[in-house]
């Protein structure tokens, strides 16, 4: 990144934060503190009204805004690709806002950039195949706003395994998309602990006017990593036929998969499974192209399900 681009990026970074420290700026641009101070001084000399508060950080004087920034070809293409990916995992509430935002971006691009994006639109596609159907939740934007405005949510939740529906009031702290589902991370007042709620299991929900306090230092990513590590307690070894590998690698959501090609051409995979319930159904969909080697209980579950299916199809 050349200096002009970096200085422009620094103004945008300052504009997007109420206050930011020199250390955060250095980390963002991966540069030294000395360079940060030199660039801040250069911006000040150029007339950019930067406010420095000792022990607090830097900010732009209230009311200052940069003129519209023109996108490079790479930036415009990156925005387009991000939009294509988000389209696949969004519901109508988020998809509509996304399309409106991208339309505004396209409107300020020169004709040459617009033509490039039009060519990309017909040449590039994304298909993530999330498990939930669109009708299962039209809640992304309202719940995202509840997170942003720190509003409590009342809901009826189906825990899944036992099918018991409980009424809860939660304090939503973040949203994550993983394992092909949207999840709401929140503090549950019923259980008095932080929980991970799947949106497709929220039978009914309502954003309340009540605001919650606290949890300022809570990190959604740290919670999720800790939670997944805690529950990733099912070491699994599976053999797949070569003809199924493309689909396996496309759909698998387990982390740290180790692969080994066997003499017969099959591929043995060692993985950590988060959900045994999901894993059984997914593995069964491969039919004769899959064999579970470990653990014994998963192997038995596969056998029981296969026998049950066979009994349903007896003459």
Automatic annotation (TrEMBL):
Gene Ontology MF terms in the entry: DNA binding; DNA-binding transcription factor activity
Gene3D superfamilies reported in the protein's UniProt record? Winged helix-like DNA-binding domain superfamily/Winged helix DNA-binding domain
Show the InterPro entries listed in the entry: CBASS_pafABC_assoc_protein (IPR051534), DeoR_HTH (IPR001034), HTH_11 (IPR013196), PafC-like (IPR028349), WCX_dom (IPR057727), WH-like_DNA-bd_sf (IPR036388), WH_DNA-bd_sf (IPR036390), WYL_dom (IPR026881)
Q: Where does the HTH deoR-type domain lie? A: 3-58
Q: Which residues form a coiled coil?
A: none
Q: Please provide the record's keywords in A-Z order.
A: DNA-binding, Transcription, Transcription regulation
**Listed name of the protein:** Predicted DNA-binding transcriptional regulator YafY, contains an HTH and WYL domains
Give the organism the record lists.
Prosthecobacter debontii
């Amino acid at each position: 990144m050349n200096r002009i681009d970096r200085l422009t990026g620094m103004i945008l970074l300052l504009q997007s934060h109420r206050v930011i420290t020199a250390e955060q700026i250095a980390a963002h641009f991966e540069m030294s503190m000395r360079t940060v101070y030199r660039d801040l001084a250069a911006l000040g000399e150029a007339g950019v009204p930067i406010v420095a508060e000792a022990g607090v950080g830097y900010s732009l004087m209230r009311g200052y805004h940069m003129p519209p920034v023109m996108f490079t070809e790479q930036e415009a293409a990156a925005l387009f690709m991000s939009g294509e990916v988000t389209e696949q995992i969004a519901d109508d509430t988020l998809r509509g806002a996304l399309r409106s935002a991208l339309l505004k971006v396209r409107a300020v691009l020169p004709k040459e950039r617009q033509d490039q994006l039009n060519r990309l639109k017909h040449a590039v596609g994304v298909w993530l195949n999330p498990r939930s159907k669109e009708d299962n939740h039209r809640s992304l934007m309202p719940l995202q706003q509840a997170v942003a405005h720190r509003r409590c949510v009342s809901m009826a939740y189906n825990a899944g395994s036992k099918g018991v529906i409980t009424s809860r009031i939660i304090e939503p702290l973040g949203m994550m998309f993983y394992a092909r589902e949207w999840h709401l991370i929140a503090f549950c007042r019923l259980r008095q602990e932080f929980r991970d709620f799947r949106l497709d299991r929220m039978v009914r929900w309502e954003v309340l006017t009540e605001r919650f306090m606290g949890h300022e230092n809570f990190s959604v990513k740290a919670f999720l990593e800790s939670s997944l590590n805690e529950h990733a307690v099912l070491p699994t070894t599976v053999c797949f036929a070569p003809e199924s590998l493309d689909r396996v690698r496309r759909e698998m959501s387990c982390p740290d998969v180790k692969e080994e090609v066997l003499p017969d051409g099959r591929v043995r995979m060692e993985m950590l499974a988060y959900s045994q319930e999901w894993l059984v159904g997914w593995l069964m969909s491969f039919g004769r192209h899959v064999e579970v080697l470990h653990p014994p209980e998963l192997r038995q579950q596969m056998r029981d399900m296969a026998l049950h299916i066979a009994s349903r199809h007896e003459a």
